[in-house]
């Protein structure tokens, strides 16, 4: 039985207690009754005294009436009481069932903490049955029972402490349920405790929290500024991290504030106005771009605003998403201008360029050159396809090529002729496929370039690289290439061929005499004649006057026959402007494979054969000879080295004394020195002048070398304290080339040497080569005041003729005669005659090559004027003769001189 039922029963005792009280009130004088009513509803009479018997009847009657009345009253009362009790029971049952049907568990305890009520929901929550509740059970007993059943989260004391809190306490049960327990103290000292299963609600609120957190972190991590403000007061209610950064304020500083807190006044006003516009906009959404002053600079802010409404559709919040697009805008402006620039470039390149979209085959770009090539305006090209532009046959052709190029994906080029209004032109088409990120072809760029002119230039340049501009013949490079091809073809066969090296004689003279134009003309004519004679073989111009030929067939016969034919062809004169010019040829020949198996060797050997032919006789034909040409090759190598000898300081001068011819030589008899050139080769060491002077003469190097010798000798002599003679040898070549007289003159001025101290020794070669010229120059040299000596007198043929033609100052008797003195009587007679001749012509006589005292004595006896030879002194560096030239170093007498010098 619940507490409420017990109470209901307790109230049913009350009408009896009311009737007794009523009797006591109705008989106040006859009887006194004391009724003690117990709190639980029982009663008892302690005494009833009746005062007299007369009154017994009256009283009995009255008592009867009263009793009847009382009985009626009691009946009435008890009926009323029963009715009230039933109503109470019904009400209690109703309340009880109402409480039992609650979703909240309820337990009530009275002031003594005994349980007076516990609803079904409570039992259900904790898995109890009603039988678990025993009479007299306290609330704490029930809680302990929960603890033993594992239905309590904390220990009991803590539990009681927690549940007192106004919000209650959530008890997390082991089975995962959450029960919200609240204790409410009643005024009568009892307690009502409510137990509510809030598992689902808790789960939901947890989920909500997670979702909220997730959304917050999403918003926070959006790189765009997100701000939300209440429309009512314009205060911020949300600011994400990007906004914090933009504002330079923390979230706490923003939230609850208005735009004035974030922006400078002018900017804040603009923002507020934009907010207002957004709120007023019918769509509730606006996009704006504001240029505002912010963070010390003007920034461009792009903003999206939208209105968030409450359930009733009333605008509640304004959400703004905005971005500082200043940098991006300026970047995009740059991109735009770069794009425009590129478009201009593309438009102005002289190459036709179109871009085709592969998805639909439409042209999406065409530049100016493409307009010209397709003969239609760009607007008509863009958006059209191949079919719109070309005829069906061309479409097929071009489409196939496009598809091939797209398949290959790289750059595909091809050259093809196209008929244009300027005639047939050569075009270079380049196809480049543009891929998307996935590597799929998207566009095809096609360029068409008119390369007709370029190709022509290229082939012209290629021709120039391999041809001689004057004669149009192949040049040396082409000749070597042809030679290599020939070798390749003949390798591993017994085929032979010959290389002919041709030298045009007297080309230089023709240039000098007739001028270069005639020289050039001659070369051209000569080339044509060569081509006609060789007919089929290779002809090339190797250098100025050197030509190369390749002739196959049986060797050496084939080469010999060709060489002869060439020689014969030169019999016919060339005529220019009515002037007949005849030229000669010298030919050197090498044969493959016996004279060389590679191009370089074959040509070098043909050259060597030519070189020897030239030294033998101009106009001859010479086959390469290993032994003979080896020496020549050596000489040529030496010649090569000689060309750099002056520059490398390898040349020097030795000096040989010349003295009066006296039986006993004394230093003061020395009259002068002959300067003799010396070459110390860096590898070969000392090279005799007999070897290198002829080499220098052949090559013309002697001109440059002679200048150096002359200057060096004059400079040296000018430095001597004594005014001694200095003799310098001149080669015939020095008379043929350059301005010898001018050179001597300027060297004398330059070195300050008195002209009378300089003696130039010449051989008869000077006059043999070109008598008139030689004579003229000798005269002019003499006019400068220098002396001229005839060297090696007697060794040639026509010395006497020259003595007659020019007034030499000195005659040097060739040492061959002196050498033979005492060996044959003729020598003495010849020397004697020469001395007589000289004296007769008033020319002083010098005997060369005096090596012995006997020779000296003979010459002294014969009144020879001067002597020169090893007896007196060998050619040596000037320091050796320091004392003789008046310098300090002591050289006591001739015998002290080193025996072998130079
Ligand atoms: P050369 O002009 O007749 O020079 C005299 C040559 O006779 C020198 O030979 C000299 O060393 C040599 N000699 C002198 N005394 C004696 C002697 O007692 N016995 C013998 N056996 N020989 C003697 P080197 O220096 O070898 O010169 C040879 C030739 O080279 C010269 O003959 C000259 O024609 C030429 N040469 C030398 N230096 C020059 C130069 O500077 N310019 C030119 N153009 N030719 C030079
Ligand atoms: Ca000499
Ligand atoms: Ca000589």
Automatic annotation (TrEMBL):
Residues 635-889 form the EAL domain. Coiled coil: none annotated. Keywords: Membrane, Signal, Transmembrane, Transmembrane helix. The chain crosses the membrane at residues 56-77, 89-109. Residues 91-134, 232-282, 338-409 form the PAS domain. SUPFAM superfamilies: EAL domain-like, Nucleotide cyclase, PYP-like sensor domain (PAS domain). Residues 412-463 form the PAC domain. Residues 1-33 form the signal peptide. The keyword Membrane applies. Residues 495-626 form the GGDEF domain. NCBIfam families: GGDEF, sensory_box. This is EAL domain-containing protein. It comes from Candidatus Afipia apatlaquensis. The lineage of its organism: Bacteria, Pseudomonadati, Pseudomonadota, Alphaproteobacteria, Hyphomicrobiales.
